[in-house]
């Protein structure tokens, strides 16, 4: 998984998910959960790659960062609760999907 279309298509498979572009910058496209309007994946291009910010349980945050050099503290977000995935092809698709799914699960629990 290396393209925005792949990420957005996967994200839309979750119940209540929808695409939003709330900023005046077309580079930022979010996946949100309709019942609480919270974003669970922020997509944007940076440094020639697609990046995806995902919410992360702090207990797993450092595991993912240690497992892949392309998982870094959340760009423009709280580094305790968000990771950025640099989709340069080095993170297996199954793990990218797992991190997006975990982000969705965390967001869907919030009021």
List keywords for this structure.
31% strand, 6-stranded antiparallel beta sheet, 31% helix, 3 helices, alpha+beta
Largest sheet: 6 strands, antiparallel
What do the pLDDT scores average to? Answer: 96
Which percent range fits the helix content? 25-40%
Overall, the morphology is globular
Q: What is the count of helical runs?
A: 3
The helix/strand series, from N terminus to C terminus, equals: HEEEEHEEH
Order of adjacent strands in the largest pleated sheet: 1-2-3-4-6-5
Tell me the total number of β-strands: 6
Counting copies of identical and different chains, the oligomeric state is single chain
Radius of gyration: 13 Å
Q: Which structural category fits the helices and strands? A: alpha+beta
User: Could you name the ranges where pLDDT drops below 50 across 5 or more consecutive residues?
Assistant: none
For the termini, the CA-CA separation is 30 Å
Beta-strand residue percentage: 25-35%
Short description:
It contains three helices and six strands. The chain is α+β, with helices and mostly antiparallel strands.
């Amino acid at each position: 998984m290396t393209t925005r279309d792949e990420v957005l298509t996967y994200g839309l498979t979750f119940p209540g998910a929808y695409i939003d572009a709330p900023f005046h910058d077309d580079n930022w496209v979010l996946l949100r959960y309709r019942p609480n309007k919270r974003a669970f994946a922020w997509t944007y291009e940076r440094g020639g790659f697609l990046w995806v910010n995902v919410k992360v349980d702090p207990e797993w945050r450092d595991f993912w960062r240690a497992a892949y050099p392309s998982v870094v503290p959340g760009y423009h977000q709280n580094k305790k609760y968000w990771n950025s995935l640099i989709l340069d092809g080095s993170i297996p698709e199954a793990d990218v999907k797992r991190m997006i799914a975990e982000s969705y699960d965390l967001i869907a629990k919030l009021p």
